[in-house]
Amino acid sequence: MLLITLFFYISIIIWLCLSGSRSIAIVLVLIWWGSWNTLSYLSISGLFVLSFNTQCMYFLFFSLFSFSYIAHERIFESNFAGDSNLTNNNDFYSILLWISICFVLPVQLFFASHTVYILKYIMPPATYRNDVFGLLTGSATVFFNSNTVALLHSLVIGPFQYILLFSGLAFYILRKRYGLLLIGVVLVILDSLIMFGRFGYHYLLISVLLGLVFITYFNGFSKLRSNLLKASLPIFLLLFLTLWITFYRGSKSVLDIFDLFVVTYHTESFSIFDVELKNPSSILYQYSYGLSMLGGIERYWVLVLNKLGIGYLSQTDIVGGYLHQDFDIGVDRFGKPIQLNAYGSIFFTMYRDGGVFGVIFFAAIFGFLFSYFSVSLKNRDPYRFSLLIGLMFILIYGIFQPTTLGPMLPALFFLVVMKFFIQVYNRVRF
């Protein structure tokens, strides 16, 4: 199956390239998933190898994803092309910049300062890591042991770091405007400090690589060498920070880091999905008909319903709670069972929304959206490009977790709503 899997992804990528489509974004996603999907068959860290039936789910999704992309591009390209509206984009940039400077950044700086104080005077990092997720007392010290403060931080500040990262990357790559990107990077670093995690540095590392690829795509290979030199410093710093926090949290050797944080963390969702598909009592078979893939947005209206006295549990809590249990997904080099949690992929939520039909439906949706927003690669519209980058993040990080249950989806929703109000305001004003 290893060679078949490798051949499948290479064939799809070649087909997209030969079709002459605006395929760079979808090709990057296919390279990412194809590399880790193929590597999972080597079972370097001892994880169970996927069954044929489970692998067919990945074949099905990425085949239909690519076909939908090409089909929508061919059918609707003339209707979706459009032009980049300079006035709307300038307003879009200015409003985001002022919101971030006046509200988001000060709030995040406050909690980051509180984090430093707690780590220095109240508890060690290992204890803090459990405390910030409420595993010790049910609430986090950094949020003043208030679940309401923690929830508001998650629902408001959480999406904004992605809003600023996505739009910041878009404006930097297409317009050479640094403000939003700089603030977005700072917010991600501060969030990594507050949560004492590594994923933020991973986000920034992927952002640097995407920036390098797209700048080369737009400007050609003439300045690739100088761009590589510019990118080497942030890549080195991010890798250093990731290694430092990993060692600080207890990892013993570089081999342990490679085995767990590189190989296992990037491939374990394949094994979890396979194990759960074989489990008839899994919540995968308790279909939610779209609510799981909309879980990141559903959280907001569930909060309102609960405040009105209507008891309802969001899919974020249901799926997140289920994936928090340990799954027996392999055997390590010492013959001990590998039990890991919290790393169900985006396929978990797609399948939970409707089984095989859910996978088919969302493959078509993602293909359409990638085609629609890839117009920005032609007309260089930073707004659409920011949404394309957001979709790429959802699928790239969908290999680790059901990303639509978290803040990335509300971030994209907010960008859409914000652009709508800007357009309405400009029409009324003029």
UniProtKB/TrEMBL annotation:
Protein name: Oligosaccharide repeat unit polymerase
Record's keyword terms, sorted: Membrane, Transmembrane, Transmembrane helix
Tree of life domain: Bacteria
Stretches that traverse the bilayer: 6-34, 46-72, 92-119, 150-173, 180-197, 203-221, 228-247, 355-375, 382-400, 406-425
